[in-house]
Amino acid sequence: MSPVPTSFHLGPLVFHLYGFGLAIAAYVAYSYARRRLARANLDVEPFARFAGWLIVSGLIGARAAHVATNWGDYRTHVLDALQIWQGGLASFGGIAVALPVGLVLARRYWPETPLARFTDILVPALVAGWAIGRILGPQFMYQGGGHLTHQWFGLHYAGQVGKRVPVPLIQGAEDGLLWLILLGVERRGFAQRGLVTGLAMTIWGVVRALDEHLLLGQHSHSGSIGVQLAAVCLALAGVVLIVRSLVGDNVVPPTLESTR
C-alpha cells in the first residue's frame, strides 16, 4: 500500500504538502481571528503586522526546538535544519517564542484592551487553525505517524515501516472538538476574562501530554519527555488562569459573546 504522499509535482516544480497545508491553516486562523477582533469592536488595522510577527517567531521557535532535540539528525548535515518544508516543528518551541512576542505586541497595538480579554478573542481562532494545521500539515509529513498498529485505522507513512496510528488526524479531531467546547462556553454566557484562554490551555495541555505518551510514546527520547513536561506545565497554568477568572469580578462585555 502506498504511504501518505508528502509532495506533488507540477512540471519541474515540487510542492511539499506539509508546508502547503500549514500555509492554508495559517490563512484560516488569520482570517477567523481578524473577524473575531472586528466583531469585538477592536481595531483590526495592526492585526496583519501582529499576525506576521507571531507566525515568524512561532516558526523560528518551533524549528529551533525541533533541531535542538533531534541534533543527532542534523549534526552532519547542518543546512538540513533550514529545510522546514520537509517537516519538523516542535509545538512548544513555537509557543515559547511566539507567546512573549504576542504579549508585547498586544500591549503595543491594543493598549486599552485587557490582555485576558484579547486572548479570549484570539485563542478560539488559534485552536481552529491548529486543528486544520494538524490535518493538512503533519499528516503529509515524512515519518508523520505514531505507533505501529495492526488496526483498521492504521495508515502507511513515508519513512516508517508498517501501518501507523494516524496521530495527526487524531490530534486534528481533538483540536476541532476543543474549538467547539470553547465556542459553547462563549454561547452560554460563561465567557469571562481569561476563562476561554484558561480552558484552552488546560484541555490542550492535558490532551497533548497524553498523545505524546500514549500515541507517540518515545519514552526514552528527551524531546518526548520535554513535550510531556511542557504540556503539563501549560495545563497547570491554564488551571490557575481559570481559577483567577472565576473568583474575580471579570465578566466580559457582551461583545465577546458574538465574536465567533
Describe what this molecule looks like in 3D.
It is built from 8 helices and 4 strands. The chain is mainly alpha-helical and 260 residues long. The chain has one domain (7-258). Strands 1-2 form a two-stranded antiparallel ribbon. β1 and β2 (13-16) form a beta hairpin. The chain is globular.
Total of domains: 1
What share of residues are in beta strands?
under 5%
Q: Encode the helix/strand succession as letters.
A: EEHHHHHEEHHH
Distance between the termini: 41 Å
Q: Tell me the helix content.
A: 55-70%
The overall pLDDT average reads: 85
Please render the helix and strand layout as text:
Layout (H helix, E strand, L loop, with lengths): L6 E4 L2 E4 H23 L7 H23 L1 H4 L16 H19 L5 H22 L18 E2 L6 E2 L2 H21 L7 H22 L5 H26 L13
Antiparallel strand pairs: 1-2, 3-4
Helix pairs in contact: 1-5, 2-4, 5-6, 5-7, 6-7, 7-8
Summarize the structure.
The chain has 260 residues and is mostly helical. The chain is built from 8 helices and 4 strands.
List keywords for this structure.
two-stranded antiparallel ribbon; about 260 residues; globular; 4 strands; about 60% helix; mainly alpha
